Amino acid sequence: VQLVESGGGWVQAGGSLRLSCAASGSNFSLSAMGWFRQAPGKQRELVASISTGGGNRNYADSVKGRFTISRDNAKNTINLLMNNLKPEDTAVYYCNVQWAVPSSYWGQGTQVTVSS
Asked: Using CA atoms, how far apart are residues 23 and 62, in angstroms rounded to an integer?
């Protein structure tokens, strides 16, 4: 499986960004997926997850109400719409299967920078 994240950038606090992840592999639709982020000096954390069919979504408390995860199994993509961004959202964002651990394969990620 290869994972390619895109859509990051620089934005002022209160702004929005939409991240996309393209995944290769025939088992994409069989995997619960997630968006993770890692800020400088911090551990990678799961911020949003979505079930195989998209009907069940969960969010970290820090992003609840601001971020929305979605997926398109026909296109092997997952997205993360981020609204009302805060400086503490600054991090490198990664997509992966929901159960991914640090030793799992990871894509290059996409940098999100939010200025105050």
From this structure: 26
